[in-house]
Amino acid sequence: MISRFQTQKTGALLAYLALHAGRSFPRETMAELLWPDGDPSAIRNRLNQAISSLRRQLHPPGCEPGYVLQADHLSLQVNPHTVVTDVAEFEEALQAAEESEDNATQHLRQAVDLYQGEFLDGYYEEWALLERVRLSDQYYEALSHLIRSYAQTGRISEAIEVAIRRLAIDPSDERAHRALMRLYLAAGRPRSALAQYQQLVRALALDDDVPSERAERLRQEAMSQLGGEEADFDVQPETHEPPLMTESVTVASHRGLPRYLTKLWGRDEELATILSLWEQQQRLTTLTGFSGMGKTRLAVEAAWQGDRFFGDRIAFVSMAEHAPDDSIVGTAAQLITGHPTDDPLGVIVRWTHGHASLLVLDNLERADDTVVAELADMLVHLPNVYVLVTSWHPLDIDGEHVLPVRPLPIPGEADRLQDLAKNPAIALFVDRAQAARQDFQLTERTAAAIQELCQRLEGVPLALELAASWARTLTASQMVEQVTAHYDRLTSRRKDLAPRHRSMRAVVDGSFLMVPESLREAFVKLSVFVGGWDHAAATQVCYGIDVYELLRVVEEFGLVNSTPTERGLRFSMLETVRAFCRDQMNPDLAAEASNAHADYYAALVERAVRREGMTGLHLIAEDNANCLAALRHLIDSGRFEEAARFGAGLALYWEATGRVREGAGLLDAIRAHEAELPVLVRGLLILRQARLAWRLGKYELARTTNDEAIQIFTQEDDLEYLSQARLQEALEAHRSSDFSRAEQILRENVELVRSIDIPANEARNLLALGNTLVEQRRWDEAARVYEDTLTLARKIGIPYLIAMPLANLGNLDLLQGKPATGKPLIEEARAIFEANRFHVYEQDCRRMIARAERMLGDPGASLEACRKLLADPIDDVTMIWGALVEASYALREMGKLETTARIMGVVESMWATTATCVFGVESDEYQRVREAVKSDLGAEPFETAVTVGRRLDTQSWSRLLDSA
């Protein structure tokens, strides 16, 4: 969406062309229309600049230049196939209403709902003014027809709603007021009719006029329906109806309530919650959270929307402008009257008498306990007063409902451009950046930098606004560099910002000073955590402190957030707060916190994997970032033996979850100091390196590294780790299609692990043996081995070892042409892998399920499953090319032969790059399908397409699959 333009004339140019989409206009005509006076040469230059700006903004990703805006040296127009305007839709709906006999009301409703305000409000070109009047007249007539239609069919409530909209066009239109009064009387709501009469009186008084006799007769009729009782002049409509008042009266009556000129982004849920609480007569709501989250902005927006509950009885008090002990009652009373008063409580009593009233108290964290006590007392004695508070922490008084205000949702890594545009953090940033530079846009070219910036700023509204103010002088990429360099650079020169909001440093510093001095050292230690922590981790890092009290206090001040999980509360800290805290730590305190942090997570990983038991991967999953930070600290601190043991345990997690690449680099860093490691620890480290290298497709490196591990474990007579290294040796033989050697190694290894009684390792070797038998098409033997493995795994009780033979038995059914029996087994296995965080094996199951879908006659579902698989990449080349192979089979069955050939080219390029030997069964099927595609497409076109595919990079083949 383009909401701002380089100049207003640029916007007018686009509006005119869109309004007449498909019509070509001479450049001279458009120049004269927009700039009727001036030097012709200067006018032509302005038009050229406007066209250039529109070209930059209008062409979305993938569009060829000129697809939307079509301009040459003589003329310009907008492609009608790319433009939809609300004006055209509005007039089409009116035309449909005129021509329809049965659905006229429906079409009228569609038309009036499309009218969202005056045409090009704020533009004053003559053609725009004429169009504005024409469309406004059409809208008024449509409303009148719709009111009449609803009233004639007995839909009075809907007629009232439309009549209110018509009155908003001209609040001094007596005819519109009288129509509403008649509708209220027809609905049996005389009090609302009287309230409407009072609004008419106020509106006409502005022009020194009074209501007509016809209006007076309607008032008398309303009085009669009420039984002749006297109505107070200030009577309000019934509580379930919105107050009927003009915007000018509302603005004048909302005492002290600010008006913002910018849009509120991403707070729909919080707004709905506040309004719902008021509907439930919840009288004290406190918006809490770290400074800069937009609590004040949210409170003000809620107050403006709350006039249907409170009418004009809303007052806003900023406690930041008062002393901590300033009386709330006195301050509010002075705001209401406009001058000091000797009877502040009486003022508020009279203000609220008979009416629900709202008091918005901003920045109440600055008030002392006596002021909070005064507020509690006021709520007890004034039952019509509702209070909306913003504060860093709850007030902790009776009847309080606390609503935390969190950062805006930030974009994910793989979000598409369309999804990015809808993300609240990005929408806020782009909106504020456009205020600094009108033609700033989210495009394919700028998306990555804007996405990264919003992620680094963690969705904090103030941080996003401060960064957006740089748009006048910096590109989005340059902003990322500035933020990355230091958060202190997030500042603003805006004069209307309070000093505490002019930099993120000032925001954090103000919050930090609220923390009791006795807890500050422990609080800054929490900055050692990355991504989050729980009570147990905080207890070890902040040893000697009441951690429950610490976390309660800092969460109340918005410095940390808590999120419920299955294992209890989990806490997190914004990166801006974390960076500030790290600055507060001296080297000794930082080392103390980092050592305790590393010790805790090393022990956690040891518990999680238990010498390859790997039953607690969920423990690591939540804390992977902490584990990586702890491992880096051990390396940087020279604690290489501990780092090696820690890294070896993490390697099993990385392998199971597909997070191999980063982990492999850390193991390389540890091995650079292998001379300082005990022999067996060095052997274990080398073994894990071999497995990660194998996952990454570095097969020669994996083979030579694993040979080193075998040599060490043989010399040291460590049979358990030797069996693991021999299993890896067998896997490499299998990959190289040396199935007989792989089978021999595995059978020997099964006997070895049985002799030392390690049933988990026995199950792994049996699984690999079954796979080798499959490649030799010894189906029955493979099935028996898988069944034996399943029996053993269930006896051991390790979930992922149960899932593996289930998946393999299901795949064996697929290979034998029995997808109906194989698919349920694979789905059962996939669910177990997902529940236990074995992402790599879960992905493999998804690939098998995609194959089953194709075999069951739904290649489209198979292709979509492969797309999703490849959109969630893991560091396992075998998995990637396996999904691409399955995608090519699905494409072939869908008749997309050229795309099939290109994807096959991608696959073959991967095989050549990684020196992959395709397994026997897989190779045979692939060659059969390849020859069929070549025959159907033709040899020359097929080879051309394969050649193209071999040259495609990851991004290109991803787009190819998405468009297939």
What is the total tally of β strands? Answer: 10
Radius of gyration: 36 Å
Largest sheet: 5 strands, parallel
Helix-and-strand structural type: mainly alpha
- Give start-end ranges of low-pLDDT stretches: 229-253, 492-502
- Helical proportion? 55-70%
Q: Strand content of the residues, in percent?
A: under 5%
Q: What is the 3D form?
A: globular
How much is the average pLDDT? Answer: 84
- With strands numbered from the N-terminus, the spatial order across the biggest sheet is 5-6-7-4-8
Question: What is the terminal separation in angstroms?
Answer: 27 Å
Number of DSSP helices?
Answer: 47
Description:
The protein is mainly alpha-helical. It is built from 47 helices and ten strands. The strands form three sheets. Strands 5-6-7-4-8 form a five-stranded parallel sheet, with helices on both faces. A hairpin with a 2-residue loop joins strand 9 (561-565) and strand 10 (568-572). Helix 31 (640-657) runs antiparallel to helix 32. The longest helix is centred in the N-terminal third of the chain and has 27 residues, at 126-152. The two termini are 27 Å apart. Residues 229-253 and 492-502 have low confidence and may be disordered.
